[in-house]
Amino acid sequence: MGEGGFTKALSDTTVLVTGASRGIGAAIAERFAQAGMNVVIHYGASHEAANDVARRCMQHGAKVLTVSADLKDHQQILRMRDKLESHGLLPDILINNAGISHYGMLADVTEEKWDEVMSVNLKGLFLCTQVFMPYMISQRYGRIINMSSVWGISGASCEVLYSTTKGGINAFTKALAKELAPSGVTVNAVAPGAVNTEMLGHLDADEKRMLEEEIPAGRLATPDEISSLVYFLALPESGYINGQVISPNGGWVT
What we know:
GO terms for molecular function: 3-oxoacyl-[acyl-carrier-protein] reductase (NADPH) activity. This protein has 8 helices and 7 strands, in the order E-H-E-H-E-H-E-H-E-H-H-E-H-H-E. The protein is of the alpha/beta class. The chain has one domain: NAD(P)-binding Rossmann-like Domain (Rossmann fold, 3-Layer(aba) Sandwich). Helices cover 44% and strands 13% of the residues.
């Protein structure tokens, strides 16, 4: 039971997770599968990895579909929507998780790299949201959850480009939440701190240890800890949480 009397069984609820072939995205997909929801796993090029995630989700008895699309390409996203609609799997919940990182001094960022990271992290999120939100508006219920970063809140040296995209996601979230609230659709962002995924692959063991020492919790987060928060925000009973940027970061940034 959701706000305004909206009802839909968990087994009839569909979640689309972009960039779900690994890391936090894969953990999110599996968390929703455990709850018995229909799960759409989007991936870019990692076909086998996406299939591995799909198999894990199906072990929980969930209905699962994998879809590939370049999120920088509006036409590919429209084709993805058509495929989901043909399977009766237009999403009630959209998790905009796909993104790429960049580490390096701003002085060394090329225009091409700037455009690439902006296109994946911001344009892709915009296009996916614009394409899939009309269905949520039409049923007067939906959840849009955007994956941001603690660096979108505090900024990080040597990650100016990445921080800029995540700051943009936070602003996008707050503004769109006000726009869609009258339609029964909430928009929130989750801005994790340091999570033990491949995205920290540029750090060696000593650098990771130094990073852990900076965090009051004394450790990195696990992907499952992030997916649990995302799942909570997607529940019908979380309908009064809207336009928020929530940062699970172990007390690192407060």
